[in-house]
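retry 2 of 3: previous attempt timed out while embedding heme C. Reduced batch size to 1 and resubmitted. Inputs unchanged:
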Amino acid sequence: MKKALFILSLVIIAALGFTACMHKNMTMQQDIPPFGSESDVAYSQALWKVLEKEKLVGPDQIRALPYEGMEPHGVILEQLSTMVTVKGHTGIVYVKANYMGDGMTRSKVVNYPDQYLVAVTVMFKRENGYDPDNQDWFWVKYKSDGSLFANPKGVMLAGRVAKGMSVGCIACHTDADGGDYLFNNTASHLD
Ligand code: HEC
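retry 2 succeeded.
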């Protein structure tokens, strides 16, 4: 009888422990925001350094002929794309310079790019499993100096932006033709 009681209490303790653990795990998962976390911000900074080194952003940026854009990106845009390696992972990156200002023209951008650059929006294909629901894209909206834009709640726009929400990078790019989150590789939105 004593032995049975002992085994029963062991089972109860184990069950309680398991429940507590599950609860902690669930809470931890809920606590990790889809974007704007410390590690997202740190990753975006590592990515920016690589983009600078590869001359995709910054004062030595390779220049492409700007094109007329559409909302929500700039009035005039410039896009560069290549493979880059960040923290040992190599993936494709799309870097979009967004230019805005009064009476914008493409020649203004060609002649004074720094004056009109308001944002650099980037998609980087991260390692398998980073965000399997959305093809592992890492989304960032940088200011021209590489610091980050934040949403109205002050959450930095880096990471899985804005996973689970009906507006934002992921929600809109889901509509791109080809189901790859990329608009400009099929360009069916252009004439
Ligand atoms: C309301 C829709 C919409 C939202 C929101 C949006 N985009 Fe885009 N994005 C587009 C469209 C349309 C294009 C293609 C036309 C162009 O170049 O502007 C595009 C192009 C891009 C490209 C070039 C690669 C491609 O798709 O061809 C990048 C990089 C990009 N967006 C990043 C972002 C990031 C990062 C965010 C969030 C901070 C974001 N976008 C939010 C509509 C959107």
